[in-house]
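Supplementary Methods, section 5.1.

A reviewer requested that the exact input to the structure prediction be made available. We therefore reproduce it here, unchanged from the version used in the analyses.
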Amino acid sequence: MLDMDGTVLDLAYDNYMWRQHVPRLYAAQNGLEPEAARDALFAKFKSMQGSLDWYCLDHWSNELGLDIAKLHRDENHRIGYLPGAEKFLQTVRELDIRVILVTNSHGDTLTIKDEVTGVTEYFDEVYTSHRFGHAKESQDFWHALAKEEDFDPKTTLFVDDTARVLRSAEDYGVSMLLQVTHPDTTSDPRKDSEFAGVTGVRDLL
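The structure derived from this sequence is encoded token-by-token as follows.
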């Protein structure tokens, strides 16, 4: 089981969108200074962190009065794989291993990213948190996933870049967990992983 953003795709795109592009346009639309707009948005983001709405483009379009999906598509040239991630997916695809994508990404975001990268072609199945109505941080997600996907938590490897998601998987009983420590190529690698860490999935080759 692989996460998408920050695990196989470069989180630089998402961080740019939410930390720079959306705040800049929100400031211009509302006559705010850029710093004030960032402070206001980051407070909103923090209050929703880990919830399903936090990952929902429709929610933020309504909340901010911006067409968030369009903004993402306009900047789709920034979307790309993490170093070596596509080679990893190609290699694993040739093996007798079931590979599933498990993502909190909103359906529109997934579609936009798939149009650019073709990422879903490397997976036997794709599961989004919006499909189940619960984010991966919730135990409800894992119980819903288990009803759809016949997997053994003891023999399933799950790779993600977010500690709170890995904690949720661990609480459910997934015993093999890896954390990607360099999910954003424009930022320094993280040094405080609480799980076994790999710089990127290419290390697994």
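The longest strand covers residues 176-180. These observations are discussed further in the main text.
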